[in-house]
């Protein structure tokens, strides 16, 4: 077990308190990346004291190779209107960072009033993209991480703790 249910609860409260301090009384648009962030997002937004608008986006990733050149196309559904809003972009687990970075740049292009990033678990040994992380719940490295909304082939998402598969 990497992180117990009690450690997760405590850390979510700490992250919410920090975000509450930064936002003051300003409403916030929470953009949560499905599927890995749904449990984390639900617990976090219940601990926020500011008005919360929440939307969930799903990444659609298509890899292709044309003429020996590999490309990756990333799109999101549904689209998000972040213009002029205080936005918090939430991901359950950050591995390479490529998909999260793409969504971050997409939201930045909409000119939000502010854009903060939050991840529950940062896999420090897998990062390929340098992007700003304002809030990190936990750091991990090594094996596949499951629990608290994170899963493998749809399994283990219901665990109240976070563990690594052996």
Q: How is this fold's topology laid out?
A:
Blueprint: H1 5-23, E1 28-34, H2 38-47, E2 52-66, E3 69-77, E4 86-94, H3 98-108, E5 114-123, E6 135-140, E7 145-146, E8 163-164
Parallel strand pairs: 1-2, 1-4, 4-5, 5-6
Antiparallel strand pairs: 2-3, 7-8
Helix pairs in contact: 1-2
Question: Explain this structure to me?
Answer:
The chain is an alpha/beta fold and 166 residues long. It has a single domain, classed as Rossmann fold, CATH 3.40.50.2020. It has helices at 5-23, 38-47, 98-108; strands spanning 28-34, 52-66, 69-77, 86-94, 114-123, 135-140, 145-146, 163-164. Helix 1 (5-23) crosses helix 2 (38-47). The protein is globular and about 55 Å long. The model has no long low-confidence stretch (mean pLDDT 92).
The CATH class is Alpha Beta
β-strand amount? 35-45%
Distance, first to last CA: 11 Å
Largest sheet: 6 strands, mixed
So what's the overall shape? globular
Order of strands across the biggest sheet?
3-2-1-4-5-6
Unreliable sequence segments: none
Give the helix tally.
3
- Helix/strand order: HEHEEEHEEEE
Content-based structural category: alpha/beta
Computed CA radius of gyration, to the nearest angstrom: 16 Å
What is the strand tally?
8
